[in-house]
Amino acid sequence: MEYAMPDATPDSTGLHGAAYTPTERTVPSRSKDRAAYDRETVHSILDAAYLCHLGFIRDGAPVVLPTLFGRVGERLYVHGSTGSRPLRATGAADPGLAVCLTVTHVDGLVLARSAFHHSMNYRSVVVHGIARTVTDPEERRVALDTLVDQVVPGRSKDSRPADAKELAATAVIRLDLDEVSAKIRTGGPNDAPEDLSLPYWAGVVPLTRGYAAPVPSDDLDPAVRLPDYLTAL
């Protein structure tokens, strides 16, 4: 069966409308004005990252794992070992695994005159849903290529794809983007009026993600040149 790519094009109706519908779990209890539900904002935050934190309940206790992810349209993909207990719980014979997936970018350290008003400028996304194992071979291929390209765009076509043994040892789970919210803070410190005259520096220390020059493997053939997609980083 041919795998159908999930639609990523916004329209005015249905699942793929301009915004996700807020729910009790996606409306923050504090700073509601920082929340966003439009797909463009959510997708841009997700697409600028490759590390997420996946939370779930195991044996009655919460577990949060850092892991790589990739987005294809309205789906997120996470991979792991087929022997992993949480991934086994997402099998077709099970109802799936209730998870909470988060992605965060820290854009600046906000230093206020008072310790209480110190903060961070950030962009984050929180996704609630049921994770399920991907069994369709073509969808698994797309998901694994996406996971590689999420880290370094273009890399999946410039490396050997997984062989049968490697695929057998790799599980892929899917989480649909349905119950989703973004939260963003920008700007400077929010000092109280009575603190503005205090003799302490206040402002923002911007943070940026950067890449150093790639370091070739010791056993790399000198004839293999640095690919353009790494130069572009």
Q: Strands across the major sheet, in which order? A: 2-3-4-7-6-5
CATH class: Mainly Beta
The amount of helix comes to 10-25%
- CATH architect. name: Roll
Largest sheet: 6 strands, antiparallel, barrel
Structure description:
The chain is α+β, with helices and mostly antiparallel strands and 233 residues long. The chain has a single domain, classed as Electron Transport, Fmn-binding Protein, Chain A (Pnp Oxidase, Chain A), CATH 2.30.110.10. It contains 5 helices and 9 strands, in the order E-H-E-E-E-H-E-E-H-H-E-E-E-H. The protein has helices at 39-47, 85-88, 137-151, 164-168, 228-231, and strands spanning 35-36, 51-58, 61-72, 75-81, 97-111, 119-133, 170-176, 179-185, 203-206. It has a 6-stranded antiparallel beta barrel. A hairpin with a 2-residue loop joins strand 2 (51-58) and strand 3. The longest helix is centred in the middle third of the chain and has 15 residues, at 137-151. The radius of gyration is 21 Å and the shape is globular. Residues 1-5 and 7-15 have low confidence and may be disordered.
